[in-house]
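Can you make up a polypeptide sequence alongside its tokenized fold?
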Amino acid sequence: MSTNNNASQTLFRFVSLRNPQLTETKEKNLGFIHRPKGVTGIFDTAVTGMSSRSSKLGEMVKAARNFSNAGFETEKKIEEGPFGTLLTIGRKLSKKEILDSAELILVKNYYKNLIDANKELTAAGTKIFVQLWDNYIYQIVTQGDFYVKEAISHILMAIHVGFAQSLDLADPEIVKINGAKPLEKAFDSKIVLPKYLFSDDSGTAGVVSSRMSGDVSNSALSSKAIQRLESEAKSSLVANKALHRKEALEKLNKELEKLQGKYHKSREQAYQETYVKYQEANREALDVYAIKLAEVKTKITEETPEEEKILLYDDLKRYEVKPFEFSYQNEINLGELLEKLSPESFSLFMALFAEFDEAKAFEDSYKERIRIISYNTLTIGSQTIVLDDEIQTFSDALHIVENNISTSMQAALEHTPLSQQQYVNIGGASVPVVNTTARTPMAYSFFAHSTLGLTGSGGFVNFSFEVEDVSWSVTNARITATTDTAGSFEENYSNIPVIDNKIILPVSLINKFRTSVAFKIEIIFDNGSIAYADLGQQYIKGDVSLTGMLTLKRGMAENPQEPETVIIQKRKNFGIKRLGVADYLKVVQSVHAYVPGGSFQY
């Protein structure tokens, strides 16, 4: 028998074609489901700032041990939960079944409720995606329950169809990327895992020239550097907390003064209106009483006996009119304050003038609404909170607020470090002594503070980092953040000088979060270099301190003579392998003969 591979001798001939796709795709490619920008969770936090000896998988496995998958324990729990309808629609998509118009409208409206007018995720929308992606990644990392993982993927598929409908599907670019029927491509979309968590570290040792703008990621911080960063951050934090409280108190003071003015104006107006009504209602009786009073006075002389005077006035009582009475609401009224004060000011007012468990009230505020019981009493959760009896008027409150402003200002001054310049006398001339603290260039300190409060967002972030010398002054620093109260936004700070080989950014994210912050920063230096860091999602209750190294992208202007060697460690057998250009849209053909009992996949 001939050993030549003659296709005519085979019983069956199958040809399978593979059409690979790059994992890095545009957002408008509806064939892929990406985690939305700004949506980061517990696993991002776990791998951010990890040591060079750690692996991403190892850090995520550690984080998974403390992760709560409440509501996603079983497939049945998901079916009975708030995502049950989306799960049903997602299952139809996975089976290639056609969605009816009602289902398409449902997912479209669901996604519409997650975004604002600019089509950016709202705080509530971000929270939902964080929950879904954290649980999805948890199942991948732990390999815990295949059916739960599949259920979450089906939910994401359903939401993705809603996202697709939010786009202009007639846009030429979308049509060019997705074909004539873009929505149909969204029906068969594939989930792309976050590259930041699952990508391989690529490459081996190499040379990165400063002139050629390479990325430089330094080694882990030494314990001495971490202690220095944390110590300096804490010392400045005390002053910043005092200043933050002072500014909050000043805001409260201003709002109370405004309410006081309105109260007195409205009270005076109500008094005048009530008095006019009283006079109109009793005009005749008041006139009669005035006449009779005049008659009594004419009858009384110096010689009139006291007994006769008493009789005259007793007779006058028959004509007396009920005296004018006026009552008005209390100056300090919790219902009015809750409505008129800003959320942050109301929270601070309650902290100043009532005694209660602030931490418990802070937790309850996520689950329960504040209920006003009376002018001086409210409830939140299981707590009943009553104002101090000493606070009856705006003047009482303003006096105490002003005292607290003075106290906070004094505390800020006492804890603000002052730079001192020392001089030595050399040959009769005073020469300044340069005392430069040892620094670790690009080492950063992130310190976030969240104020426990009934309402509003009361917190801020301190961010600073160390540099080599004064040539590293900052042209612009851009912070990109997503928080639980303010959604996604940017803050920019320009022209920041180097002081003692250190850059200290102005206090940022003021009153823009309660417990959750996703934080990214990009810094452009005057010397042309760029540094950046992605701290992922941080959950803040009280104070959170992080240290690490910025990733530096050197510019052409910065020391063009000296190349820098950067060692990048490669972790094998984990992550996603990117397809090269040569592999993109590559067609692979194979010929198979019939195998009894075998199966074929196309």
The two ends are 31 Å apart (CA to CA). Residues 25-198 form one domain. The CA atoms of residues 224 and 230 lie 10 Å apart. Confidence is low (pLDDT under 50) at residues 1-24, 201-219, 560-592, 597-602.
